[in-house]
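Re: Re: ligand-bound prediction request (bumping)

Still looking for help on this. To restate: I need the protein modeled with zinc ion bound, output as structure tokens. Inputs repeated here so nobody has to scroll up.
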Amino acid sequence: MSLKYAICLILLSQCAWAGDLIRLKSRTIDGAQDGLRRETPPSGKYWLVQFQEYPGARLRAELVRRGFRIIGYVPDSSLLLEAPKMADLSGLGARWTGPLDAADKLSKGLNDENSGTYLVEFHRGVNPRVARGIVRQHGFLVHETEGLIPWHLLVTGGHSALRDLAGHEEVAYIMRADPELLARKRVAGCGGPITEAGPVADYALADTGWLRDAQGNAALQYIFATMTQKLDANVARSQVERAFSEWARYTNLTFTPAQQTGAARTIDILFANGAHGDAYPFTSITSLAHTFYPAPPNPEPVAGDMHFNDAQTWGVGMNIDLFSVALHEIGHALGLAHSDAPSAVMYPYYKLSSGLTNDDIAAIQALYGTRGAQTGASDPPPPPTPPAQPTQPAPPAAPTPPTDTVAPTVAISAPAYTIVSTTNTSIAVSGTAKDNVGVTAVKWATSTGNSGTASGTSAWSATVPLLVGTNTITVRAYDAAGNSGWRSVTVVRH
Ligand SMILES: [Zn+2]
Ligand SMILES: [Zn+2]
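Reply:
Sorry for the wait, this slipped through. Here it is.
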């Protein structure tokens, strides 16, 4: 692509912000062109509504007055609404109204993956009991992992049932589960980027970011409005600055300290407890941080601002690692949505990170270009990149021993599917296990109360007794340092 053409594309993508598009990960809907669903409101409860302009405070107040509940914001100028029985959008400048289709809720990463374990996201406000009922109705098994985002479920089940699951209007999005979510006792997630108009869910895509100059560069500022009591101020500052420079290494972004809070194109960073002046109080200990998207769509001065929950125990290199969480949140401050790739820093669950992964670098370069590519490389070349280590990191909420922290991985080769049925009183289970140091033991346990040790380690096998009904067999591999990784299989005995 020629340089001129690349710049034109960047400028075009800015012009397209006018509000004509509904940006989903699955597709882009041009509400002005697609007249099909302009007149007929959807029959279901959840409506995707595009407005003629950004849905400001007055419009949102009127929607609430008419009985709508605002579930989330969808770039460029749409809202996902929960509609009351007698819903009326007349006179509010609605340009397009339609439902989210099942295909909009299925991550592209699910196409080639048959892992059997999925992250199912529901619309905020869906009753957790209703959510569990829906996934069980399609034969999925729910894994209760501590620290999951309240509207997420971690499930195991058949790939072929995903489309039917996505057909439920309460379901917002389904993506691959990071195997770490199954292996860890406790995880920590990010609820997604936020805007003044509402939170942005993982089916939505914002691919604009901050305005660039004619050379494609974006200069941003940052300032620490309040510091945490949990860490020395200089240490906290240097960890967040290290995260800024990690993003700046790969693309045409510069970050410089600001002189005052509330300035344009300035990321205000604060540590706060509970309510702190925006619509997103830190009410739960599971909430670590949140970040406002750039302008547009957010108005200044909140655009890009990052808020950290000071009820957390912030640390360096251990729980809760400030650098790792800041690295993820800065991605939102720059305009990135969540990634569906489990290894990415921008996946919805935090992990102990040493730097960006290829997935994150590709996403940021798609927005701001490759560092130096459009500026004549006046800056020194970045130092060599350490290889990304997607399988290693632990979420910041998990304690990190100083020595071997790499958990073994387990694969179950027989049975070949994650859900099988049988009439037998037992089943032969076998597979492999790997570890950077060495697997010391492979153990199995069933949901019906049996447990034992498999024979073998790197290649293992076991005969597991079955009760009539559903038996979930969990196989866990251990190393000498006590790390463990696991996989499970569900066997229904008739
Ligand atoms: Zn996030
Ligand atoms: Zn906040």
